[in-house]
TrEMBL record, chain A:
One of its GO terms (molecular function) is DNA binding. Heterodimer of an alpha and a beta chain. The keyword Transcription applies. SMART domains: BHL (SM00411). This is Integration host factor subunit beta. Keywords: DNA recombination, DNA-binding, Transcription, Transcription regulation, Translation regulation. InterPro entries: Hist_DNA-bd, IHF-like_DNA-bd_dom_sf, IHF_beta.
TrEMBL record, chain B:
Heterodimer of an alpha and a beta chain. This is Integration host factor subunit alpha. The gene is ihfA. GO terms for biological process: DNA recombination; positive regulation of metabolic process; regulation of DNA-templated transcription; regulation of translation. GO terms for cellular component: cytosol. It comes from Denitromonas halophila. GO terms for molecular function: DNA binding; structural constituent of chromatin. The keyword Nucleotidyltransferase does not apply. HAMAP family: IHF_alpha.
């Protein structure tokens, strides 16, 4: 399922709304989630899962082409942990 | 502060002009549609945010950490999330001031 399919499904769920509302709502939700993580804040959605950041300390890496050693700065990477309901529904669905 | 469904619904109410009920239902519907797709075995690709994928894990031997007893961990299907390049780059330059 892609973002446009998700928007179409939501628009079908809410026949009283104009299709543009579903489109705008999906963009708004994804932007708010991105902003929250960019500020360093967690996202917690009951029954779906949580998003948090994991810290990666600075390390010495290598340029795979030239073999040259380069310093890789510290950073944060997004991490998702599925919630109980999502975990169970996906596993039972086989 | 942690972002939850309540904050997302407030945002839709304030910015999209949905009423309170519709805002709440829209947020619920958003996550429910993703769960339903994954339940069907479909992966979900949200461009600019990331992909939710499914992985089938075979059975493997496990152990009860308390008793040391060997018990198999059954085969299962799990969800993995892969952040898009855009999401990765917006969180990696997170400022460290006041955060660890």
């Amino acid at each position: 399922m892609t973002k446009s399919e998700l928007i179409a499904r939501l628009a079908a769920r809410f026949p009283q709304l104009v299709a543009k509302d579903a489109d705008y709502a999906v963009k708004m939700i994804l932007d708010a989630m991105t902003d929250s993580l960019s500020r360093g804040d967690r996202i917690e959605i009951r029954g779906f899962g949580s998003f948090a950041l994991n810290y990666r300390p600075p390390r010495m890496g290598r340029n795979p082409k030239s073999g040259e050693r380069v310093e890789v700065a510290e950073k944060h990477v997004p991490h998702f942990k599925a919630g109980k309901e999502l975990r169970e529904r996906v596993d039972l669905a086989e | 502060m942690t972002l939850t469904k309540a904050e997302l619904a407030d945002l839709l109410f304030e910015q999209v002009g949905l009423n309170k009920r519709e805002s709440k239902d829209m947020v619920e519907g958003f996550f429910e549609e993703i769960r339903t797709a994954l339940e069907r075995g479909d992966c979900v690709k949200l461009s600019g945010f990331g992909n939710f994928q499914l992985r089938d894990k075979p059975q493997r031997p496990g152990r009860n950490p308390k008793t040391g007893e060997e018990i198999p961990i059954t085969a299962r299907r799990v969800v993995t999330f892969h952040a898009s390049q855009k999401l990765k780059s917006s969180v990696e330059k997170l400022s460290y001031a006041g955060k660890s």
